[in-house]
Automatic annotation (TrEMBL):
Gene Ontology cellular component terms for the protein in this record: plasma membrane
Ranges of residues in domain ABC transporter: 4-283
Subcellular location: Cell membrane
The protein's name: ATP-binding cassette domain-containing protein
Matches recorded under Pfam families: ABC_tran, oligo_HPY
GO molecular function, one term: ATP hydrolysis activity
Length: 385
């Protein structure tokens, strides 16, 4: 059974002149129990906004305009003695609850979503230092989260669990009595991971978990996340601009650009059978140890403005393969396997399938070949095939 199901999620940021920034548009993906799912893309593509929206942590001018976020949970006041939603709640049209036990997080108010955070969904924010209160001991901050969701737990039990959690992520238990400024960067990141696991959530959102850390510490943090997943069975939603991180830890992933999902599928499919020009461009810009002669090629141009964007493909102005159709409307998601097998584009809504938003999916082999060449991206006179 799917743990998280995001349907056509669109998020906006209101601007003073009355317009809106389209941070994400019609985003669809799902996360399975025990799975690591990744959202990757350039800065400003909407991936962090998307993650924050799941637990209502957007800035004051941010809001969900449309879409659903179905999550495998039931609010305590809506649950029966077995933790399942009461039939009266399921039958109530004013309650965002389905018979399969999922709740639409997008429709919850601020009080209700606080019952979900930490208990069911925990988040590791980008900046560990900003996530820790500088005037509270690290252990006390973990204890606060435990007592908020488990009032039956005593303070002594919560403190002991906080020490155990710190030890579990490689920090001496006695450091629970220290303040955040006494921790190194890697220790802060571990402490935030311990805090996120305090209430045994089903989903852990890791937003750029290795940013600003050296490569050795990065590797250890990733190993720690994988170990926690194996031990507790938690699902992980990873947000990153680093496709090498995604390749290492993700089971499935989605590539975002300009608030849109450009390609999604199993990680090995994304890397071994890349099917979108933007993803091909991303791969060109990252080094690989498998080819010593590889030259890094950046994608020319800059990301589009997302303030009231037009209807065309978001990547078309930077894409050397764009055709007239790309200017008319953003392409739907096409099934890559069908195109490879039959040479024609078939739209797909299957979350498990390898899909791409590209009108030229029937020319994939030629596009993959051309995308390797630097001249494809630098020669502005290239003619679309």
């Amino acid at each position: 059974m799917t743990l998280l199901e995001v349907n056509d999620l669109s998020i906006r940021y209101a601007v003073d002149d009355g317009s809106a920034v389209h941070a994400s548009d019609d985003v669809n993906f799902s996360v399975e129990p025990g799975e690591t799912y990744g959202l990757v893309g350039e800065s400003g593509c909407g991936k962090t906004t998307l993650a924050k929206s799941l637990v209502h942590l957007l800035d004051d001018n941010g809001y969900i305009e449309d879409g659903e976020v179905w999550f495998e949970t039931t609010l305590p006041q809506w649950a029966d003695e077995n933790g399942d939603p009461k039939q009266s709640v399921i039958d109530d049209p004013d309650k965002p609850v389905r018979a399969d036990g999922k709740t639409d997080l997008a429709q919850l108010n601020s009080k209700q979503i606080r019952d979900i955070r930490w208990r069911d969904i925990a988040i590791i924010p980008q900046s560990a230092m900003n996530a820790l209160n500088p005037v509270y001991k690290v252990g006390d901050q973990i204890v606060e989260a435990i007592l908020r969701h488990e009032p039956e737990t005593t303070a002594e039990e919560a403190h002991e669990r906080a020490r155990d959690l710190l030890e579990r992520v490689g920090i001496e238990p006695d450091r629970a009595d220290d303040y955040a400024h006494q921790f190194s960067g890697g220790m802060k990141q571990r402490a935030v991971i311990a805090m996120a696991m305090a209430c045994g959530p089903d989903l852990l959102i890791a937003d750029e978990p290795t940013t600003a850390l050296d490569v050795i510490i990065q590797d250890r943090i990733l190993e720690e996340l994988e170990a926690l997943q194996e031990e507790f069975g938690v699902s992980i939603l990873v947000i990153s601009h680093d496709i090498s991180v995604m390749a290492e830890i993700c089971d499935r992933m989605a590539v975002m650009y300009g608030g849109k999902v450009m390609e999604s599928g199993r990680t090995e499919e994304i890397f071994d059978a890349t099917a979108n020009p933007y993803t091909l461009g991303l791969k060109n810009s990252f080094p690989t140890i498998t080819s010593k002669d590889q030259d890094l090629v950046s994608i020319p141009g800059t990301p589009p403005t997302l303030r009231d964007p037009d209807e065309g493909c978001r990547f078309r102005e930077r894409c050397p393969f764009a055709v007239e159709e790309c200017h008319a409307a953003h392409p739907p998601m096409y099934d890559v396997a069908t195109a490879d097998a039959e040479g024609r584009a078939v739209e797909s809504t299957d979350r498990r399938a390898h899909t791409t938003a590209c009108y030229r999916i029937d020319e994939l082999e030629q596009i993959r070949t051309d995308a390797i060449n630097e001249s494809t991206w630098t020669d502005q006179t290239i003619e679309s095939r």
